[in-house]
Amino acid sequence: MLRSRHYLRRWSQLLSGLFLFGFSAAMMLRANIGVDPWTVFAEGFNVRWGFSFGWVIVISGLAVLLIWIPLRQRPGIGTILNALLVGPSMEVGLALVETPETLPQRIVLFASGLLMMGIASGLYIGARFGPGPRDGLMVGFNARFGWPMWAVRTGVESTVLAIGWALGGTFGVGTIVFAVLIGPLAQRAIMVFRVPDYLTKSTGT
């Protein structure tokens, strides 16, 4: 009974976290005050060489997974589900959320989406089924070198943003806010929602 309850908790965190992650991305997109750094990155490749957004995201995700090798990170079921579920959940968000008419309302929508994404990161990473391709860098550098997860996340997001901007991508004030704050928010959420070792061991994984 205890094992089943703990396993249910992990799966509930994983699936709800992935859904909220995609939904929160849609909220920030609808706020229209700046997209996240990875979207700026994809837009830069689209502007410079005409690559579609989807292909850039897929290829960059595969490239990031290659960096996992020296970090000794292994993809889990959560890594795979991240690739499969975040996109559809973002489409749900785009279908349900509209861009507010006033700037204050759009700021509130963006801030809510950013906070939700931080919580969502803590939920699905904390479930211990494996982080997403890009979140794995944050976890991997922390485990291998002891670097703070927030610093790694902020560094990665800032680098991606700079490359995308240099290639012709556009961004707004919301992009900068995202790059600076998503790391600390995600690290705090992971501390809150991380399933303890003895709970994961009780499930046999």
Explain what you see.
- This protein has 205 residues and is mainly alpha-helical.
- The protein is 79% helix and 0% strand.
- It starts with a helix and ends with a helix.
- 42% of the residues are buried.
- The mean pLDDT is 84.
Number of beta-strand segments: 0
Q: Could you tell me the radius of gyration in angstroms?
A: 17 Å
The total number of structural domains is 1
Main sheet record: none
State the gist of this model.
With 205 residues, this protein is an all-alpha fold. The chain is 79% helix and 0% strand.
How would you describe this structure in keywords?
205 residues, mainly alpha
What is the fold's blueprint, element by element?
Layout lengths: L1 H30 L5 H13 L3 H19 L5 H20 L6 H24 L8 H11 L3 H18 L6 H21 L3 H6 L3
